[in-house]
Structure prediction request, 942 residues.
Amino acid sequence: MLKKGISRMSRLILLFYLILNIVFPVKSAENSSVLSSWSSATDICRWNGLTCSDDQAHVIALNLSGSGLSGSIPPELSQLTSLQTLDLSSNDLTGSIPSELGQLQHLQEVLLYSNSLSGGIPNEIGFLHKLDVLRIGDNLLSGKIPKSIGNLTQLSVLGIAYCQLNGIIPSEIGKLKKLVSLDLQQNALVGSIPKEIGECSELQKFAASNNMLAGEIPPSIGNLQSLQILNLANNTLSGSIPSEFGGLQNLKYLNLLGNRLSGEIPMELNQLSQLGTLDLSGNKLSGSVKILSSQLMSLEVLVLSDNVLSGSIPGNFCSNSSSLKILSLSRNDFSGKFPLELLKCRSLQQLDLSDSNFQGDLPSEIDQLGDLTDLYLNNNSFGGNLPPQIGNLSNLEFLSLYGNEITGEIPAEIGKLSKLSVIYLYDNRMSGSIPNGLTNCTRLTYVDFFGNHFSGLIPDSIGRLENLVLLQLRQNELSGEIPPSLGYCRKLQMLTLADNKLSGPLPSTFRFLSELSLLTLYNNSLEGPLPESMFLLKNLKIINLSKNRLSGSIYPLTGSTSLSALDLTNNNFSGPIPPRLALSKDLTRLRLARNSLNGSIPSEFSQVTELIFLDLSSNNLSGELVSGLSKCTKLEHLLLKSNQLSGEIPSWIGTLKGLGELDLSSNNFNGTIPKELGDCSNLLKLSLHTNKFSGQIPPEIGNLSSLNVLNLQGNNLSGLIPTEVQQCQKLFELRLSENSLTGHIPVELGELTELQVILDLSSNNLSGEIPQSLGNLMKLERLNLSNNHLQGQIPPSLGKLSSLDSLNISYNLLQGQLPSSFSLLPLSAFLGNKRLCGPPLARCLGSSRGRGKWLSKAEVDAIIFAIVFTTSVICLVIIYIMLRIWSTWRKVAVSNNEGIGNEIKEQDQEKWLGYGNEKRKGGYWKMNPKNMPPSPDKQLFT
Ligand SMILES: *[C@@H]1O[C@H](CO)[C@@H](O)[C@H](O)[C@H]1NC(C)=O
Ligand SMILES: *[C@@H]1O[C@H](CO)[C@@H](O)[C@H](O)[C@H]1NC(C)=O
Ligand SMILES: *[C@@H]1O[C@H](CO)[C@@H](O)[C@H](O)[C@H]1NC(C)=O
Ligand SMILES: *[C@@H]1O[C@H](CO)[C@@H](O)[C@H](O)[C@H]1NC(C)=O
Ligand SMILES: CC(=O)N[C@H]1CO[C@H](CO)[C@@H](O)[C@@H]1O
Prediction:
C-alpha cells in the first residue's frame, strides 16, 4: 500500500516537472513564487496550489489561478485521475482545452476562464458526470456548444461568456435540471432560444445578451420561478414579450434592449414585484406605457426609449411610495404636453423625455422632483419660458433642453443650482441677457447656448466658472467686449463666440487659457492686434477668427505646434506669414485670404504635408511659388489669386494629384503653362486668368477630364486652341478670351455639350469660320466670339441654341444672313461685321444669291427692266418701313442692356457684367452639386 503510494508520488513528481519546466514556462521571477515550492525536495502535497486527499495518495485539487502561467494545458493532466477541482483561471494560457480532460471523471469544478484558450469545447466534456461548475468564458473559444453538455446533469454553473462560440444553444440544455447560472453573453450564437430552457427549473441567472439569437422568446421562460436575472439584450429576437413573464415572481433584472420585439408591453409585467430594473429600449414596442411604477414597488430603473410607444402616461403611473429613480422614455412617438403624472414620481433622479414630440410649456411644478440630478427634455417642441422654479431643483447637475422652442430669458434663479455641471440650451428661441447669477454655478463644465437670441454683454463675472471646459455662445446677438475675466476659466478647452456682435480687442488674459484647443470667434466686429501673449496657448488646434477687423501680425497664433485649422479670412492682418506655422505638422486648413499679408509664401511649408486647403487669396504676397508646396501632395484647394506672385508655375504642380481647385488668377505669373498640369486629373476648377502666361495652351489640358471651369483669360497665350480640350467633357465654363490665340475654332469644341455658363473666345486672333458644331452646345447660355477675325456665314445651327441668352460675335469678318432667331438679340452683338445682315441688322439684299438655275442674259435684262419700273416705288416704301422697324429694335436693345449708352462700351462691360451674373446664380459649384467641396465651416466649426 505504502509502496504503491510512493511510486505514484514519483510519477506525479515527474509529471509536474514536465508541466513546470516544459509546458508552463513561468513568465517572470516575480510570478515564479507560486511554483517556487514545486521541487522534489518538498513534499508534493505541500506544493503551492496542490491539494492532496486525506491519505496523501491523490491530488484532488489543482489551483493555479492568476499565477501568470502561459503555454498550453498539458494533456498529461489526465493522469491526475482523482482531480476534483481544476482551476487555471486568469492566466495567459493558449492552445485548446485538451479532450483528455474527459478522463477526469471525478472533476466537480473546472475553471479555465480568462485565458487565451482557443479551439472548440471538446465533446468529451460530457463524460464529466459529476461536474458542478464549468466556467471557461473570456477565452477565444469557437465552434459550437457540444450537445454532450446535456450529460452534465449535476451542473449548477455554466459560464461560457465572452468567447467566439457560434452555432445554436443545444436543446439538451433543458436536461440541466440543477442549473442555477447560465452565462452565454458576448458570443456569436444563432438560432432561437430552445424552449427546453424552461425545464431548468432552478435557474436564477440567464444571460445571453450580445449574440445573434433570433426568433421569439420562448414563453416557457415564464416557468422559471427562481429566475432573478434575465438578460437577452442586443440580439435579434422578435415577436412580442411573452405575457408568461408575469410569472417570474423572483425577477429582479429584465433586460431586452436592442432586439426587434414588437407588440404591446404585457400588463402582466406589473406582477413582477421584485423587479428593480426593466430595460425594453431599442425595440419596436408600440401602444402606451403599460408599466406602473405604482405597482412595481421595487422598480428603480425603467428604460423604454427607442420604441414606437405613444399615448399618454397612465394617471396611476407613480405613487408616493414608488421608488423609481431613473426613467427614460426618449425617442418614442409621445406627444402632447409634459406628462404631469410624472411629477408624482418623487424619487426620480434622472428623467429623459428627449427626442419625442412633446410640446407646450414646461410645468412650473417641475420643482416637485426635488431629487432630480439629470433632466433631458431636448429635441421636442417645448415652448414657453423656462420656469423660475427650475432654480429649486437643488440637486440638478445636467440640464439638457436643446432643440426646443423655448422663449424668454434664462431665469435668474438658475444661479441657485449650485451642483449644475452641464447646461445645454442650444437651438431654442431664448432671448434677453445671460444672467450674472449663472456664474454662481461654479461647477459648470459645459455651457452651450448656441443658436438663440441672447443679447447684451457676456457677464463680467464669467471668470468665476473656473471648471468650464466648453463655452459655446455662437449665433446669438451678444455685444460689447469679451470680458477679460474669461481668461480665468483656465480649464476651458472649447470657446466659440462666433456669429455675434462682439467688438473690441481680444483680452490679454486669454494667455491663461492654456488648455484651449478650439477658438472660434468668426463673424463679429473684434478689432485691434492680437495680444502677443496668445503665443502661450500651446494646445490650440482649431482657430477661426475670420470676418472680424483684427489687425497686426498673426504671429501670436503660432505658439501651438498642433494647429489643424487656422482661418483668419477677411480681417486686416498684415506682415508676413510666419514660417513657424509650418511647425504644425497636422495643419490641414490654412485660410488667410482677404488680409494685407505681405512677403512670400514661406519655404518651410514643405513640412506641412497634411495640408488640404490653402487659401492665401487677396493679400499682397509676392515672390515665386516655393518648391516647398510640392510636398503638400494632399492639397485639394490651392487658392492664391489676387496677389503679386510672380515667376513660372513649377512643373511639380503635376504631383499634386488630389488638387481639385487651383486659382492663381490676378497675379504676375509668367512663362508657359506647364504640361504637367495635365497630371492633376482631379481638377475641377483651373483659373489662371489675368497673368502674363505666354506660349501655347498645352494639349495635356485634355487629360483633365473632371474639369468644370477653365479660365485662361487675360494672358499672352498664343498658338492654336488644342483640339484635346474636347476631352474635358464636364466643362461648363470655358474662357480663353484676351489672349493671342490663332487658327480656327476647333470643330471639337462642339462636343463640350455640358458647357453652360459661358464659352468665351473673344479678343484673340482666331480666324476661319464658326464651326457648325457649336450648334450642339444646347445648354450654353453665353457665347462670346467677338474681336477676332472670324469669317464666313453664321452656321444656321447656332440659331437653334435655345438656352442662349447672351451672344456676342461683334467685330469679326462675318457675313451673310443672321439666323432669324437672333432677331431679338441686341444690335451690339453683331456690330463691326460689315457684311452681316438680317434683323436686328439691316435686311439682306439678294439673299437668294446662288440659288436656282442661271437665266440667260436676255431674260435677266427683261426681268430687271420690268422690276425696276413696276416696283421701284414699292421698294422705296418697304425700305422706309424697314428703317422704322430697325430704329424700334435699337430702342429695345438699349433698354435690355440696362441703359448703358455707348454700344461699344456696352460690349466691354458685358464681360464684367458676366461675373456679376454668375454670382447671382450662386457660382460655379451649385450647378454641379456632386462636386461641391465640403463647406469647411460646417465641417470643422459646428
Ligand atoms: C452522454 O451520456 C450518454 C448516456 O448517459 C452516453 O451514452 C454518452 O456516451 C454520453 N456522451 C458523452 C459525450 O459523454
Ligand atoms: C448593447 O450593445 C451596445 C452597442 O454595442 C452596447 O453599448 C451595450 O452595452 C450593449 N448592452 C448590453 C446590455 O449588453
Ligand atoms: C449668487 O451668489 C451670491 C453670493 O455668493 C448671492 O448673493 C446671490 O443671490 C446668488 N445669485 C443667485 C441668482 O442665486
Ligand atoms: C518672368 O518674370 C521674371 C520677373 O518676374 C523675369 O525675370 C523672367 O525672365 C520672366 N520669364 C519669362 C519666361 O518671361
Ligand atoms: C501571483 C502573482 O504574482 N501573479 C502576478 C503575475 O504577473 C501578472 C502580470 O504579469 C500579475 O497581474 C499577477 O498578479
